[in-house]
Write a structure and sequence with these properties.
10-stranded antiparallel β-sheet
């Protein structure tokens, strides 16, 4: 079993916020002694002061919570668990919503635009002296790490922002990078090889089977024999995808984006004082100070991530109509283009930019989404189960301010929503809640605007389907 990070103190569970805590007990003892020589009014004031003192830490995490009905609540998050969230507004009573109706929780004390201390694209740059290590999981989760220690079954890493010690099973690791640089990212950007791959600091790339991974370095069996390489010479390691796996997600899950650029998929979240306790998808218990949490995207029986569903049908037509891609097959119109390049452009990018890497629109990052190039149509079967569709749309930041696209949402050959022309650098546009009650299918459409299809990196950020109430 993965190592569970102990709670602060003696390793026992911390006291939930609604249970009498030691500070309150001490205050009540003081009141009993004071009551022998003071008035009942003073006793009351001491009790109130003790309550406020012990509860003040609970009001530190200022958030905006968004409900699947479109409602928003701003204030201090005082409870978050498997059943509900509770927000204390500055001028009213606490607002309590069921967990299954939540779409997101965003910190009001941190920016939506996170400056990553490492490159996730080949064009990014970062100083090697300032860059921490980076661990990437097969679900695109990532951990910015200060150190790592190899064990037989797990790699134990120290999360740079929180200091949490996290045990990650080897089979849950896709890539490990030491002081990531664009050259490290280029190793990961290519087609996955059916072997372990290692990039050395001098740019050499070695493929084979890792037989040892430790602080002294690694041993890798290659076609030319086994090699021993010191850790100081290793820039990045990419693990054989044939041996990588993660446990399946339950119906209720969440994606946390942290202020240092880390991202974690969680199967449970619980607020305990000023700490968020989560269980990761790789089954490790992790405690995060709330100040390290930038946002939480939540999914449930009622709020479904569209990018988690299989597409029923898709088509792609390039601006120069040499070939047409239909459900992954090329249908030639004029056979003048290289088929592999066309299919690479045609394929929808699940939870990624069309050029790879995370989806970012106007500086805001979306952990879930779909990257597309025009002219493309992507259809999903709904079976009449859903009430609303909602998404952010825009040109992905990889276009570097260029490109222009028009977005549309269709159902059964009828347009339900159209965007104006959006260009690179525009802020994300929210579709709002689009009524899809009783609809059998949903089609996402991206089309050309100006200048053909140059730099047209269309992105749907966190597209969700919402079931009507009573179905969860």
């Amino acid at each position: 079993m993965p190592h569970a990070v102990p709670h602060a103190g003696n390793g026992t569970e911390s006291v939930p916020y609604n249970i009498v805590c030691p500070e309150r007990t001490t205050a009540l003892s003081m009141v009993r002694r004071a009551s022998t020589f003071t008035s009942a009014r003073l006793v009351y004031m001491v009790i109130v002061a003790a309550y406020l003192s012990s509860s003040s830490a609970l009001a530190d995490w200022r958030v905006q919570a968004t409900r699947c009905t479109g409602e928003e609540a701003n204030g201090a998050c005082i409870a978050l668990n498997a059943d509900s969230v509770e927000i204390q507004s500055a001028d009213g009573d606490p607002i309590s919503w069921p967990r299954t109706e939540l779409v997101s929780i965003t910190s009001l004390d941190s920016s939506e635009q996170i400056t990553l201390p490492f490159p996730l694209n080949v064009t990014d740059s970062v100083s090697p002296t300032d860059a921490p290590g980076l661990l990437i999981l097969p679900n695109d989760d990532r951990l910015v790490i200060a150190s790592s220690e190899a064990g037989e079954a797990v790699l134990t890493v120290e999360h740079a922002a929180s200091g949490a010690s996290i045990a990650v099973p080897w089979e849950s690791i896709a890539n490990w990078m030491q002081s990531p640089q664009p050259s490290s990212v280029s190793l990961l950007a290519g087609q996955p090889a059916r072997s372990d791959r290692m990039l050395l600091s001098n740019g050499d790339l070695i493929s084979g089977e890792l037989t040892q991974f430790g602080p002294e370095g690694v041993r890798i069996a290659t076609a030319a024999g086994e090699l021993a390489i010191g850790s100081e010479r290793i820039a990045a390691v990419s693990f054989n995808p044939d041996f990588i796996s993660l446990p399946l997600l339950p119906q209720s899950w969440a994606v946390l984006q942290l202020t240092d650029g880390s991202r974690l998929t969680a199967t449970s979240c619980e607020l305990r004082g000023d700490t968020l306790r989560i269980e990761s998808q790789f089954e490790a218990e992790i405690e995060l100070p709330v100040e390290t949490v930038q946002s939480i995207h939540l999914y449930s029986e009622r709020v479904v991530s569209l990018s988690s569903l299989p597409a029923a049908h898709w088509t792609y037509e390039p601006y120069v109509p040499s070939m047409l891609a239909v459900d992954g097959e090329l249908e030639p119109v004029i056979t003048t283009m290289i088929e592999t390049n066309l299919l690479e452009r045609a394929n929808p990018a699940w939870n990624r930019s069309p050029l790879g890497g995370p989806i970012r629109i106007g500086g805001a990052e979306y952990p879930r989404g779909i990257g597309m190039r025009p002219r493309a149509r992507l259809t999903f079967e709904l079976h009449g189960e859903f009430q609303f569709f909602q998404s952010a749309v825009g040109i992905d930041d990889r276009a570097e301010g260029r490109g222009s696209v028009e977005f549309r949402v269709d159902s059964e050959e009828v347009a339900l929503w159209n965007s104006p022309m959006l260009t690179g650098g525009d802020a994300p546009l929210d579709t709002g809640l689009i009524d899809i009650t009783g609809k059998s299918e949903l089609t996402l459409v991206v089309d050309f605007a100006e200048w053909g299809d140059l730099h047209d990196l269309a992105a749907w950020g966190n597209p969700i389907l919402i079931r009507p109430p009573g179905d969860d």
